[in-house]
Specification:
Elements: E1 7-11, H1 16-31, E2 35-41, H2 42-45, H3 51-57, E3 61-66, H4 80-89, H5 91-106, E4 115-119, H6 124-132, E5 136-140, H7 144-158, H8 200-210, E6 217-220, H9 231-235, E7 241-243, H10 247-255, H11 259-265, H12 274-280, E8 287-291, H13 300-313, E9 317-320, H14 337-340, H15 343-346, E10 347-350, H16 355-359, E11 364-369, H17 373-382, E12 386-388, H18 395-406, E13 409-411, H19 417-430, H20 432-450, H21 455-473
Helix pairs in contact: 1-10, 5-6, 13-19
């Protein structure tokens, strides 16, 4: 084995929306000739399918499962308690794994670890890397705009915007460079909803978020033309910033016909391919695709209103309703009979869909989405205008970016059947040409960015070279 080959350890937050982009990055780094260890918890590893086929496609990519230190019956919900648990309980196991990789290198089984690429939502890998004196790059799976909101919190506290003085979550906040026109209270990180900004919990959340600028650089799944107003301000917070998105499209451009196969390997949910056959039977650009991601929760009454709004719009629809989309306390009533009315003639409901393949289908003309960053990027690159119904976290500011800055879609202003129907009609009929022209332009910028000489392509090359320089200095 060539021991001068750089060895990169990639470690995602164990949720769908973070695993997929980091796995795309891992494959790109592997394709560039680096040895990559994709480090995931046992709990996550057993849910990913066909990883052997993925390593066959990318022989430099290796999966290293390890314990997260939590019991099997732990819910692993993304709340404050979960992040406190993994900080204390997962950290020693992650350290042991890094040390075991060094042991493997001493035996000639792999190159020594060069650096770690860590999900920015996890703080313990940064602490372990600093302790072991291993360079670390931080990866952000959400938008640059949302990242900038974190770094704006100290100023917002100083100016009295946080904590909030009332419950008007739509109140616009001005004076934050890079976020002009798109910063509302509800667009801030969840920690800002706390009433006491002097509490230890708030301080811990803020300190751990801002600690990521101690990394050797920031890798972000975006492209320069998409977030031109905020990326320069993000760059001021880090020694280096590598904007190398959209990662899914970048990877697809490298592996061609294998793209749909590889995309399925990043999914914690098994997609129902029958929906593709249903799409084949629909006319060009007629179908509304509806999916609220893996984490968003909706009430049964909201789903019923959506059902009526979709049917009344007159457009056929493909709707993803997996069991976890329903509020926990209403789970037993997840699929009432009324929800099925109208679907047999107008639409198709599945537990999960192969989203990239769906968005690329010629029958799809619009996407109703929670506006997670992966879904937003996938919709842009497929040139499908969006209806945004954000749920939490970065989704709110993504919706404002889509509707107010890029003008490639609209935000749903209410969850009643009349509003849903009229919003779908506006996207699919009334303002169709307007949105299509806008999204075609930004999609072309994305393609240019991942093409030869493009900004994302160059930034990936810079990242690879900077990792190789670390190796040469050892």
């Amino acid at each position: 084995m060539e021991h001068q080959q750089p060895h990169v350890v990639v470690h995602p937050l164990p949720v769908q929306g973070h695993i997929k982009p980091l796995l795309c990055l891992a494959q790109l780094l592997s394709e560039a000739g680096l040895y990559v260890s994709f480090v995931i918890t046992h709990h996550t590893h057993k849910r990913l399918e066909n990883l052997s086929a993925l390593t066959a496609q990318f022989p430099n990519l290796h999966f290293e499962p390890f314990s997260d230190g939590l019991p099997d019956d732990h819910p692993r919900c993304l709340n404050f308690d979960f992040f406190i648990d993994i900080k204390t309980k997962t950290k020693p196991f992650f350290k042991d794994l890094l040390l075991s990789l060094d042991t493997k290198s001493e035996k000639g089984l792999s190159p020594p670890v060069t650096c770690v690429i860590n999900d920015g939502y996890l703080s313990y890998p940064l602490e372990v890397a600093e302790e072991l004196r291993i360079p670390l790059f931080t990866f952000i799976a959400h938008s640059a705009c949302f990242l900038l909101t974190y770094y704006s919190i100290p100023k917002l506290i100083e100016e009295g915007h946080v904590p909030f003085s009332d419950n008007n979550m739509n109140l616009e906040i001005n004076g934050i460079a890079g976020l002009e026109g798109i910063l509302r209270r509800k667009n801030l990180p969840p920690a800002c909803m706390m009433k006491e900004v002097t509490s230890p919990l708030f301080k811990q959340c803020l300190d751990e978020s801002l600690a990521m600028n101690r990394a050797s650089g920031l890798i972000i799944n975006t492209f320069d033309d998409l977030e031109v107003q905020c990326l320069p301000h993000v760059a001021n917070k880090f020694c280096k910033v590598y904007s190398i998105g959209p990662l899914h499209a970048f990877l697809n451009s490298k592996i061609g016909n294998q793209s749909q196969l590889i995309a399925s390997h990043a999914s914690l949910w098994k997609a129902e391919q029958s929906c593709i056959a249903w799409l084949d039977s629909q006319t060009l650009k007629s179908v509304v695709y509806v999916s609220f991601g893996t984490l968003a929760k909706r009430s049964v009454s909201q789903l019923l209103e959506f059902s009526h709004g979709l049917v009344n719009s007159g457009h056929p629809f493909l709707w993803v309703i997996h069991p976890d989309v329903v509020l926990d306390e209403e789970r037993e009533n997840a699929m009432p009979e009324e929800l099925q009315k109208g679907v047999k003639e107008n639409g198709c409901i599945v537990d999960w869909a192969p989203q990239e393949e769906v968005l690329a289908h010629k029958a799809v003309g619009g996407f109703v989405t929670h506006c997670g960053w992966n879904s937003t990027l996938e919709s842009i690159m497929a040139r499908i205008p969006l209806i945004c119904w954000p749920y939490t976290s970065d989704q709110n500011i993504n919706a404002d970016l889509v509707s107010k800055v890029l003008r490639i879609g609209v935000e749903l202003e209410g969850c009643d059947r009349q509003t849903i129907e009229s919003t779908i009609r506006a996207l699919m009929d009334g303002r169709k040409e307007e949105f299509q022209n806008s999204i075609d332009k930004i999609a072309k910028c994305g393609l240019d960015g991942i093409g030869h000489g493009g900004s994302s392509n160059q930034n990936l090359e810079f990242l690879v070279e900077d990792i190789k320089k670390i190796k040469s200095l050892e």
